[in-house]
Specification:
Layout lengths: L1 H26 L8 E7 L7 E5 L19 E5 L22 E2 L12 E4 L17 E5 L2 E4 L1 H34 L3 H31 L9 E4 L8 H12 L8 E2 L13 E2 L22 E2 L7 E4 L3 H7 L6 E4 L17 H10 L3 E2 L2 H9 L18 E5 L9 E4 L20 H9 L20 H17 L25 E5 L8 H6 L10 E4 L42 E2 L2 E5 L3
Parallel strand pairs: 2-4, 11-20, 17-19
Antiparallel strand pairs: 1-2, 1-3, 5-6, 6-7, 7-8, 9-10, 12-13, 13-20, 14-20, 15-16, 17-18
Helix pairs in contact: 1-2, 2-3, 8-9
């Protein structure tokens, strides 16, 4: 009788443990520590539920935590314990308009620069039950915060806990069976051991979360992975132009007093007002322009541009006088961490700069910014060439255009001029686009989102092919990726990454319209040149003596290559940057 009662007690213990396991599977705390689900509505649409997962215990205070005015219209409340199972999309049997989002993702446009970006969720070869990836990610400070890895680990944790719990339950049942039907003391003891081991393992498994959260809560809160954004700037020429016009606005003369030194112990001469440069083109409060109609910055360059002052040392070293100017710190679109704009022609580069109140740099300015104020830093980053991992070995006998590579140094180059091309060069898509749809005027630029040609399906098809080809060939790096590739004045990526289109010095005193009127000229009549190497050590018509220096151009200096502009050549390796005249101080 005693044995029967003991076995009945054991059966009740097994049933109780099974019940605990089932309860845990439905209520276990997730690895991502999302302990609350907030049901939020907007004043504009109170019938639509926005569900937000959060670690915050009080959902009603959530909108106050956001700096987005739109989000502050949300009214949030916590789902009751009985309703938490409804924290999923309506299509999945829940009450949310779409899948619930993390609390770090619900702000769509914060004043601190935080935005949300729609993104395609990862697709798994083997689906994990209950896993729903977010479709929006946070973008802040040039970085995307991707929650996918944390969500994946969270789902795997839950799934593996479930599998382990079921396995433990099976072992407990198996041990109980052996204990009940065992005919000897050894078998009964074996059954007890199996039950005890499975129970201990299950308790450790279920307690792991509590143990880790007690020791260090950060160990159970998985944070999103931060990746630098690589993309092209949204079209916001008006904002850029406003900043440039502000910098070009003439200020009223200041009455700064300059004391006169007393060198004779006699009476001190009266203080003299500081001389101010005269600006005949504009009066105080007006926007200064040069004779060609280009804006002229007054005293300071607009944000994102580096002041390059006229330098007597440079003139003495090079024999070339270059007036003061401002230059974009990075290659267009002039954003650190963004890929350079490629696949455009010279007219489109001029359009891009002009829309922002700037102009395409000329070759005198480009070389001056690269060489530095003393004119001695032949490679932008310094006077001595750092080979990098690969260098050109010159032209093979069977080719007069392309050179071959050889090993350089053991360390990457200062700039991105040592990246061998991995793709076979095929010009077909580039040629089809610019031959069939030549750029008749700058407004037809492929950079212009309002380009009327984009409504033409045939144009759009070739345009997409062009982008695909450029992206396939592109081995440029995000602007500023190599911190050592900077001049002493703070201009990045001048002797590598992409070749840069500039106006040749013979055409500096022409307007953009006058240069465009010449059509796709070639040779010496071509108004543009390409300065600097791109990412490949095999620069166009390079020899073993050619190095990515500040004076290297696609053709002889001031002559240029045979390619045309506007209706002519597009290149996957050509970028550009913008400049702005700067009044002399």
């Amino acid at each position: 009788m005693k044995i029967v009662n003991t076995k009945n007690k054991l059966s009740r213990i097994i049933v109780t443990l099974m019940g605990l396991i089932l309860v845990f599977l439905f209520t276990a705390p997730p690895a991502l520590a999302l302990v609350n689900c907030c049901k939020c509505t907007t004043k504009d649409d109170p019938k639509t539920n926005i569900c937000i997962k959060t670690t915050e215990p009080d959902c009603s205070a959530m909108p106050a935590k956001s700096s987005n005015p739109q989000v502050k219209t949300l009214e949030c409340e916590s789902l009751g314990e009985a309703d938490k199972g409804q924290c999923r999309s309506i299509s999945n049997g829940g009450i949310c308009a779409k899948e619930p989002i993390e609390d770090s993702l619900f702000s769509s446009s914060a004043s601190d620069g935080t935005t949300t970006t729609s993104i395609a969720a990862p697709k798994l070869g083997i689906q994990i039950p209950g896993l729903q990836f977010a479709t929006e990610v946070v973008a802040k400070g040039g970085y995307l915060q991707l929650p996918f890895l944390a969500q994946y680990i969270d789902a795997v944790y839950k799934y593996m806990v479930g599998v382990a719990a079921v396995a433990a339950a099976i072992m407990i049942v198996y041990g109980g069976f052996i204990y009940i039907v065992g005919s000897s003391g050894i078998q009964i003891q074996q059954g007890k051991t199996i039950i005890l081991d499975a129970t201990i393992g299950l308790l450790l498994l279920l307690g792991a979360y509590t143990i880790l959260s007690t020791i260090n809560p950060d160990t159970v809160v998985l944070k999103p992975v931060r990746l630098m954004q690589v993309g092209r700037e949204p079209f916001n020429a008006a904002a850029s132009r406003a900043l440039v016009e502000q910098a070009a606005t003439v200020r009223a003369p200041s009455a700064v007093e300059i004391p006169v030194l007393d060198l004779t112990n006699g009476p001190v001469a009266p203080a003299q007002p500081a001389p101010t440069p005269e600006t005949p083109a504009a009066k105080p409060g007006e926007i200064a322009k040069d004779p060609l109609g280009n804006l002229v910055a007054q005293g300071n360059c607009p944000p994102g541009m580096v002041p390059i002052e006229s330098s007597p040392e440079y003139e003495q070293a090079t024999g070339v006088k270059v007036a003061s100017f401002c230059i974009d710190r990075f290659e267009a679109p002039n954003q650190q961490g963004s890929k350079p704009l490629l696949g455009v022609n010279e007219w489109e580069a001029e359009w891009h700069c002009n829309e922002r109140g700037k102009r395409l740099c000329n070759e005198l300015e480009w070389v001056r910014a690269c060489l530095g104020p003393q004119g001695k830093n032949a490679f932008g980053y310094g006077p001595e060439f750092i080979p990098g991992l690969w260098v050109t070995a010159g032209n093979p006998p069977e080719s007069s255009t392309w050179s071959v590579l050889k090993k350089g140094g053991t360390e990457p180059g200062k700039c991105n001029y040592d990246t061998p091309s991995k793709n076979v060069i095929v010009w077909g898509r580039l040629q089809r686009f610019y031959i069939q749809y030549p750029t008749k005027k700058p407004e037809d630029s492929i950079l212009n989102p309002n380009n009327p040609n984009l409504s033409n399906p045939k144009y759009k098809k070739l345009f997409d092919e062009l982008k695909t080809e450029v992206d396939r060939m592109d081995q440029s790096e995000p602007s500023g990726a190599r911190q050592s590739c900077a001049t002493s004045e703070g201009v990045f990526d001048m002797t590598g990454n992409v070749s840069e289109m500039v106006v040749k010095k013979a055409f500096i005193n022409q307007t953009t319209e006058q240069r465009i009127a010449q059509g796709p000229a070639t040779g010496a009549a071509k108004p543009y040149n390409w300065m600097g190497f791109y990412w490949s050590p095999i620069a166009h018509k390079a020899t073993s003596q050619d190095k990515p220096s500040c004076t290297f151009g696609a053709g002889p200096t001031s002559v240029g290559s045979v390619h045309g502009a506007g209706s002519g050549w597009r290149d996957y390796a050509n970028g550009f940057r913008c400049c702005l005249s700067l009044a002399e101080r």
